[in-house]
Write a structure and sequence with these properties.
heterodimer, A: 345 residues, mainly beta, five-stranded antiparallel beta sheet, four-stranded antiparallel beta sheet, 25 strands, globular, B: 358 residues, alpha+beta, six-stranded mixed beta sheet, two-stranded antiparallel sheet, 23% strand
Chain lengths: 345, 358
């Protein structure tokens, strides 16, 4: 009996040891493999609060970050994924709802999340075929308070492989696709990230082919619809994602120089003429800069660890000769890196 | 255990004191060895169960043999448009550890448009890895390159795999480019998606907006010939497997067509390299499980494991990316199909600058 008990105990120990070895190996997996899902913003406590209210997009949801906590704006998911918020008239936001094969611009109540108005209708009739759907991205309200500047790949008139985004504008209360501002280079993806200027022009990112048949990006301005682009950055720097300070004197851009790393640069603007660029954040995967309402600090998105999930970062005194070091605001979130934050006072 | 309980006979009992002195150490040691062996076996079983996906993959996906065909000399290939290699296949010695080697990376549309292994290679990247100098060179071979196939005739190079699998694809590259391929790795569409998802996605700087109104909806659609729209927005971002596939596969709205796609494929490969250096041995089963039946290579699991630290040691500045744009190639129409005519007089010196001639 004693031997039997001993044998049974030994068997249990053997099984436990084998199981332990198995679990030990499992515990040695890298975080890349285990990749715990990013938290929902409402479930985390950011490192610190920011003044005002910041609107951000994660996993198709739009969140309001105010007084140190996130709130899900609970926009209806039936329209698609909510991305690229921008401040509109007081208490209102322009937001893009991205469906599988088209996207539309909406006017949304910033407090309640209620849909105020659908500003575009980019879905094609089913029998027309999916290729006749259209995309609308990066809506911004112009300084006149009544015109929306945005990126648009329509109108679609026929089936062609060529599809590109261009800068368009239209009245907030009428047909949004009224005026085409830019004439994109074909088969490059086109003109993106339009940002209206106080003086009436638009800053945007223009893609074109260089002499070596490489696609390069340059930040450019256009004074009015159809006017030729005036470039603000060099071809070799591959800059894009412009963010203009509220007073119009500073331009933050993301540059990659045809590499797989990025840097955030600050370019002073004097009457629209670019000064000498300064690198604010180097050797990062930083994206989508956004100015504070007072034009002193910048928000941007960048990964903080090997998961590659984009977190919110704050760069105070961005225009100072020696800016503060960037501070990580959030941890373990996964913001949409192609949706710049919108920062309201 | 049985030895420990062996009954003792009478004659043995009579000589017990002396035998006890002789057998006591053995009686003590053997059970201890048995118990220890039990722990070793149970531990090995636990480890074997853990690595079972990798073990299954080792039999199924790894260690395939390349049957090399004798490559023609580069000079013989230059300017040739009709020659084809047809020598008897030979097995070449493996590359010594630590030595530079050349690997042919193949990617295919293994969707429902084709049956079994009869697929085109949408992506062919010839990579030279030098562990000593920590340098990597990646040459993207355009899929429309109009070349003599080792299986006979002249056609787009993506047809080589269709006509004779990996051996023909390798032999065609060896023959036409005058290089020796030491290893190959083939991956299907789903394999790429699963691999990227297994490592938690990749971090990529999308160099331009990638828009496509005629992107193949052959994964999960009703028909492999369905189309869908995709829009990958530009800039730094984190992509999951499906997003990364859209980024590397789309080609309709790129003026550089297959060349633009080749550049994007190399970007995602480099992003995967960045992830690979963070992986360890314990991650192999998940990687193997993710790519089951979507990946084959002639390398063993051990060899692939040895590549991980090499990937980690290579810095981006030591990665040379080569794409055969004009004047290395020129667009032509042969029959009813658009092809890329190679300019071997320019291509071969470029290739042999980075890849030793066969």
């Amino acid at each position: 009996m004693r031997r039997l008990r001993f044998t049974a105990i030994l068997l249990v120990l053997w099984v436990a040891f084998g199981f332990g070895v198995n679990r030990f190996l499992d515990s040695r997996k890298s975080t890349l493999i285990t990749h715990p899902a990013a938290s929902v913003p409402t479930a985390v406590k950011p490192a610190f609060a920011l003044p005002g209210t910041v609107y951000l997009s994660q996993a198709g949801h739009l969140y309001r970050f105010n007084a140190g906590r996130f709130t899900d704006m609970n926009l209806t998911s039936s329209a698609g994924s909510w991305v690229q918020p921008a401040l509109a008239t007081p208490g209102r936001l322009l937001v893009v709802a991205r469906a599988a094969e088209f996207s539309d611009v909406y006017l949304v109540d910033a407090r309640s999340g209620a849909l105020v108005q659908k500003l575009t209708s980019n879905v094609a009739p089913k029998r027309a075929g999916v290729a006749l759907n259209a995309w609308s991205f990066w809506p911004h309200l112009a300084a006149d308070g009544s015109t929306v500047i945005f990126g648009y790949d329509g109108p679609k008139t026929g089936l062609t492989y060529e599809v590109h985004l261009a800068v368009w504008s239209g009245p907030l209360t009428g047909k949004l696709e009224s005026k085409q501002w830019t004439d994109p280079t074909q088969y490059t993806g086109g003109d993106v990230n339009p940002v209206p200027l106080a003086g009436g022009g638009v800053i945007y990112t223009r893609y074109a082919l260089n002499a070596q048949s490489q696609i390069v990006s340059r930040v450019a301005t256009v004074a009015k619809p159809g006017a030729p682009p005036v470039y603000l950055t060099a071809e070799a720097n591959d800059c894009g994602e412009p963010a203009v300070s509220p007073d119009g004197t500073q331009l933050a851009v993301i540059c990659t120089s045809d590499t797989q790393t990025a840097r955030m640069e600050l370019i002073p603007l004097v009457n629209g003429v670019p000064g000498v660029p300064r690198v604010l954040v180097d050797n990062c995967l930083c994206a989508s800069p956004a100015w504070s309402p007072d034009g002193v600090s910048l928000l941007y998105l960048a990964p903080a660890d090997a998961t590659g999930h984009f977190q919110l970062w704050w760069l105070n005194k961005a225009t100072a000769f020696t800016p503060a070091l960037p501070k990580q605001v959030t941890t373990n979130l996964d913001f949409d890196a192609t949706s710049a934050p919108a920062w309201a006072a | 255990m049985l030895l420990y309980h062996r009954p003792v006979s009478a004659p043995e009992a009579s000589s017990r004191p002396r035998r006890q002195r002789r057998t006591r150490p053995r009686r003590r040691v053997l059970p201890v060895i048995g118990i220890a062996l039990g722990f070793v076996l149970s531990g090995a079983l636990g480890a074997a169960l853990y690595f079972s996906p990798a073990i299954a993959a080792a039999f199924q996906d790894f260690g395939h043999t390349i049957h090399h065909q004798a490559a023609a000399s580069p000079s013989a290939s230059a300017g040739s448009t009709s020659a084809s290699a047809s020598a008897a296949p030979t097995l070449l010695p493996a590359v010594a550890p630590g030595n530079a080697f050349t690997v042919l990376l193949l990617g295919s549309d293994n969707d429902a448009k084709f049956s079994g292994n009869e697929v085109l290679t949408q992506s062919m990247i010839l990579a030279r890895v030098n562990p000593a100098t920590k340098q990597v060179t990646m040459l993207s071979i355009p899929r429309d390159l109009y070349v003599p196939l080792s299986s006979g005739g002249t056609n787009k190079i993506d047809q080589a795999y269709l006509h004779g699998g990996v051996d023909t694809a390798i032999a065609t590259v060896e023959h036409d480019f005058g290089v020796h391929v030491d290893h190959y790795a083939w991956i299907g569409l789903l394999g790429l998606i699963h691999l990227i998802d297994a490592v938690g996605g990749v971090d990529v700087v999308a160099g331009n907006p990638v828009l496509d109104d005629f992107y193949p909806k052959d994964l999960g659609g009703n028909s492999p010939f369905d189309i869908e729209r995709v829009a990958v927005l530009p800039g730094p971002q984190h992509m999951n497997g499906m997003e990364a596939l859209q980024y590397v596969r789309s080609r309709h709205d790129d003026l550089r067509s297959d060349f633009g796609r080749s550049v994007r494929q190399q970007q995602v490969l480099l992003a995967l390299r960045a992830k690979a250096k963070l992986l360890g041995v314990a991650d192999i089963p998940d990687i193997a499980a993710a790519m089951t039946s979507q990946f084959t290579t002639d390398m063993s699991v051990t060899q692939v494991g040895q590549l991980l630290p090499i990937a980690g040691n290579v810095s981006l500045s030591n990665v040379k990316q080569v794409v055969l744009l004009a004047p290395y190639t020129s667009g032509q129409v042969v029959g009813a199909q658009d092809v890329l005519e190679p300019n071997w007089n320019l291509i071969l010196p470029l290739v042999h600058k980075y890849f030793p001639p066969a």
